[in-house]
Amino acid sequence: MVDLVIPPELRPVDGRFGSGPSKIRPAQLDYLVATGQSVLGTSHRQAPVKRLVAEIRERLAVFFDLPQGYEVILGMGGSTTFWDVAAFSLVRERAAHAVFGEFTAKFAAATGGAPWLREPLVVEAPAGSVALLGPAEVDVYATAHNETSTGAASPIQRPAANGLFVVDATSAAAGMAIDVAETDVYYFAPQKALASDGGLWIALMSPAALERTAEIAASDRYIPASLSLQTAVDNSRLEQTLNTPALATLALLLDQLRWLDALGGLTGAAARTAESSGRLYAWADASPYAEPFVSEPGLRSPVVGTIDFGEQVDAKALAAALRANGIVDTEPYRKLGRNQLRIGMYPAVDPDDVSALTACIDYAVERL
């Protein structure tokens, strides 16, 4: 039983620090209520929802400054679904995977389990660091911009001239700077920096990726319709998805994109997460009992901060005490098994709330 009471004046205004699903701004819910009657419970193939999808695609293209010929593609499911989509529709024969945490490993497992593909090349690094890919005899290179499980952020630069470069941006997109031209597929789900609900995947695709998709779709490979990237491309060009999407997810996503644009676009969003994470890491570096899990400063994520604690601190009890005081979702990724907290610092999170969180941690540690 946690009975520690943190003084209200120390607590964050908003105590949500989840790494996904993440904080949804109250104004988004107001927007959902105000606009919901015109789209919720209506056909996703009619004009009101098509306009919603069209504005999302247009705003994403501008937000990420897409190069000529790149397209914004939407499909049903999240990033987990997209790994299967990629195994069916993007990899010709063999993929190379940078594995440095749980989610990069899951994509490697998806292509590794596909009986029509050769065994993938896996370049692995320990949790808390980053694996980098080099030229290889493969046709897809895959990595993550940010490994959500560990808080390690990878530099994004094409590893080779041959092959498509496919980047999981689920926890990075809209919170970290990116030159999309360095990638062929920059894919993500909207429940993190884009502050929406799950249920969709979004991919920013290059002309080469679109061509590969069409090539494989025209081959004799069996591809289920729900996992066909070409089907998602065809439907996205019609401003819709194959099956009925969660319309509330789309509405929340659109309102967040409008807010991010007012914040200064991707530049403003990245500056805000850098401010939040800078405060967290500065506090941890100065703390006598805490330190950033990612030891190399240049690889520390600006959107997901993992903080290790010395043996004198029980991080599980600390997270419970914070939760009892309305500060939630600071628990570490379960499979890491470390004595740590994991802090989501997406653009919707106020940097001042991150500072308040560190003050609450100090208060709780002193008394637990």
What does this structure look like?
The protein is α/β, with parallel strands linked by helices. It is 38% helix and 14% strand. It contains ten helices and twelve strands. β5 (146-147) and β6 form a beta hairpin. The longest helix is centred in the last third of the chain and has 22 residues, at 265-286.
Beta-strand segment tally: 12
Strand order of the largest sheet: 1-9-8-7-4-2-3
- If you average the pLDDT, what whole number results? 96
Overall, the morphology is globular
- Sheet having the most strands: 7 strands, mixed
**How far is the first residue's CA from the last residue's CA?**
12 Å
Put simply, the count of helices is 10
Strand percentage: 5-15%
Helical proportion? 25-40%
Uncertain spans: none
Class computed from helices, strands and strand pairing:
alpha/beta
Element order: H for helix, E for strand: HHEHEHEEEEEEEHHHHEEHEH
Radius of gyration: 21 Å
Keywords: Amino-acid biosynthesis, Aminotransferase, Cytoplasm, Pyridoxal phosphate, Pyridoxine biosynthesis, Serine biosynthesis, Transferase
Domain Aminotransferase class V: 138-328
Protein name: phosphoserine transaminase
Function: Catalyzes the reversible conversion of 3-phosphohydroxypyruvate to phosphoserine and of 3-hydroxy-2-oxo-4-phosphonooxybutanoate to phosphohydroxythreonine.
Give the arrangement of secondary structure elements:
Layout: H1 26-39, H2 47-63, E1 71-76, H3 79-89, E2 95-99, H4 102-112, E3 121-124, E4 140-144, E5 146-147, E6 152-153, E7 164-168, E8 185-188, E9 200-205, H5 207-217, H6 229-236, H7 247-263, H8 265-286, E10 290-292, E11 304-309, H9 315-324, E12 340-344, H10 351-367
Parallel strand pairs: 2-3, 2-4, 4-7, 7-8
Antiparallel strand pairs: 1-9, 5-6, 8-9, 10-11, 11-12
Helix pairs in contact: 1-7, 2-7, 3-4, 7-8, 8-10
